[in-house]
Amino acid sequence: MPKPLVIKADDDEVLDVELEEDFIKANERMAALNRRTFDRAGVRVVDFMGSIGSGKTSIIERLVESLKGKYRIGVIAGDTATDIDAERVSRHGVPSIQINTGRECHLDAPIVRKAAKKLIREGVNLILIENVGNLICPAEFPLGSHLRAVVVSVTEGEYMIKKKADIFRSAEVAVINKKDMSGPMGIDVGALVKDALDANPKIRVVVTSARTGEGIDDLAQALGL
Ligand SMILES: Nc1nc2c(ncn2[C@@H]2O[C@H](COP(=O)(O)OP(=O)(O)O)[C@@H](O)[C@H]2O)c(=O)[nH]1
Ligand SMILES: [Mg+2]
Questions:
Q1: Are the C-beta atoms of residues 134 and 51 closer than 8 Å to each other?
Q2: How confident is the model at residue 11 (pLDDT cuts 50, 70, 90)?
Q3: Ligand 1 and 54: CB distance under 6 A
Q4: Domains in the chain, ordered, with CATH?
Q5: Pocket test for ligand 1, best of 47, 51, 57, 58 (most atoms within 8 A of CB)
Q6: With a 6 A CB cut-off, is 78 part of the ligand 1 pocket?
Q7: What is the number of other CB atoms lying within 10 angstroms of the CB of residue 118?
Q8: What angle, rounded to 10 degrees, do the helices at 21-41 and 109-121 form?
């Protein structure tokens, strides 16, 4: 299996989190440009956000398996340093690009543009993006995707959604993953669904298990795929 391409951010390519309005605005402008580029190319783009270990890569792998007959899929995986995720996804026979953000805790629109253009040249019509793992920084940095999905898992405990409500407000779809672990964890999945809806009454909530495959078709549907 060929090694996935790794794009490392130059210092001037990934924007500093602490930094100001101007950077956020510049990112938003580039995100709008990305959206126009995606639409013109007829490419649908979904941005998956969530903590490390919530199951983003596992869900993307499941979606790739279930949708690769229908779409020409490409994956962009964001991580601070490793290429583990792009490598996992590339085993499913779809092009995947790893972006290493160094010390930055989110992807941003300029670097995603670079990777997405490469995938578009390869002829993809669906791009699944895995954002850098955490529930804080990605919220403020739209990438130009058509939809944002936030993934939490029952193993993160019962307070995750309440504590990080902001990111649910920035997303259209909430995924509550690892349903198979709700028994051992003693977690009430219905209460997590309610927390997500309390944070954002318009959010579509899907309960999944990337381990068993439960809910993956519902998720594809919620994403309009
Ligand atoms: N039991 C269970 N384990 C899962 C599920 N989804 C992911 N995992 C496991 O959780 C760990 C982290 O998953 P990963 O997809 O790498 O999470 P990411 O960091 O958000 O990309 C891995 O060991 C997965 O096998 C699930 O639905 N149920
Ligand atoms: Mg991952």
A1: yes
A2: low
A3: yes
A4: 5-10+20-218 (3.40.50.300)
A5: 58
A6: no
A7: 16
A8: 20
Residues lying with their CB under 5 A of ligand 2, a single-atom ion: 56-57, 85
pLDDT value at position 119? 98
Q: Are strands 5-8 and 96-100 parallel, antiparallel or unpaired?
A: parallel
**Which structure tokens are listed for 30?**
């580039």
The strand pairing partners of 51, in sequence order, are none
Q: Which residue has the tokens 């391409």?
A: 5
> Strand locations in the chain, DSSP E?
5-8, 44-50, 73-79, 96-100, 126-130, 147-153, 173-177, 204-207
The residue length of the chain stands at: 225
pLDDT in tens, 112-137: 999 999 999 999 999 999 999 999 98
Residue pointed to by tokens 């003693």? 186
pTM over 0.85: yes
The single-letter code of the amino acid at 6 is V
Q: Which two tokens stand for residue 17?
A: 């989190």
